[in-house]
């Protein structure tokens, strides 16, 4: 008669079905899962372990410094060459090989450029054109974007699609029709050549600015506007008291883009501003370039570039904040 050993069954816990997993099996499964998790966490070109090593840190800083210095030099060197070129004489500018530092630091060329080229008049004209274009852009583009975003008119999507389609057309293609429109304004028959209106109105008709503003207005909660409607506010009051105050980042971006575009434009002012007393700074410098020494011409270019550079450094953080604002909802 064989001896049988009876192993008592372990009591089952209420609510669980099937045999319980042994204690030895659970650590074994954890051991199998752990390497897979580590491989997913460090699946990169350079692992954190290699990057934290002494050799990895040296390579990382070498690559970082090389890339930053290279790109900075590529963008800053033309500006440096322009600023220092105005401090050289004409003989130093044509010298081969060129000198990177002027023999004598002087601002005489800048003073000559200011007096001989009448830059005060040219800069004043350009400031007038840029300021008027900024006002008309905010008045027209903001209201158009608000209507397309919140008022939702009939065929609003079609109108927006047609506006965006204009961005696919090269500017040179529509330059002749735009010139004919400015020369003989439809229905009214006005000739807007040699007037600021020839700069202001085309600058305000910008589909890209309307698209940026509409995308931002879409991110404004609808409940906020509905609460204002319950209080009795109309569409104009909602736009002025609610939408515009919360849209300062994108309004700053649109303002900067408009002012800079008008300030540096060349071809369109050359067509519509033929009067020498009403030229913009870019047209005035180009028209007098053949009569000026090279260092004086370079100095005038530096003076004409200073306003846009100052605007960029003052509002550079608003540019990125406004372009990314409204991209995410919620």
Automatic annotation (TrEMBL):
It is found in: Cell membrane. GO terms for biological process: transmembrane transport. Gene3D superfamilies: MetI-like. Residues 16-25 have a biased composition (Low complexity). The chain crosses the membrane at residues 58-83, 127-148, 160-179, 199-217, 238-263, 296-315. Residues 123-315 form the ABC transmembrane type-1 domain. Pfam families: BPD_transp_1. This is ABC transporter permease. It is a multi-pass membrane protein. Keywords: Cell membrane, Membrane, Transmembrane, Transmembrane helix, Transport. Signal peptide: none annotated. One of its GO terms (cellular component) is plasma membrane. Coiled coil: none annotated. Belongs to the binding-protein-dependent transport system permease family. It comes from the Bacteria. Its main location: membrane. It comes from Planobispora takensis.
